[in-house]
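How a chain folds remains the central question behind the approach discussed here. This step matters because it turns folding into a mapping between discrete strings. The sequence in question and its structure tokens are set out directly beneath this paragraph.
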Amino acid sequence: MDRIFTLGEARALMPAIVEDARAVVAARADLAEIAFDRETSGGSALGGIPEIKGLEARIEEVLTGWSGRGIEVKGIAPILIDFPAVVEGVSIRLCWLEGEPELGWFHRTDLGFAGRRPLA
């Protein structure tokens, strides 16, 4: 069975999520820079294949950790994650998007991101 979060449980995880997200954002930016530099000039001051593999592994480690806790990863550029929850018998997702200061949104599971609403 998939994990169901309370709002309190999800919010308690947010400091660690934000810290992990910073690592993903930094790795994502480094990957983009390395790829661009390698394509345009043949090399990058940030490194080559070993560094690319290391950055990819770091991102995968974070995403796997989130998934292992029952958090649904919906995107990584920007980072979008959902915490499965149930409110008044309705399946919802508590929703956090990279750059938001806190966990402040939800949507019905069957509506997805387009149905996002602020938490009361």
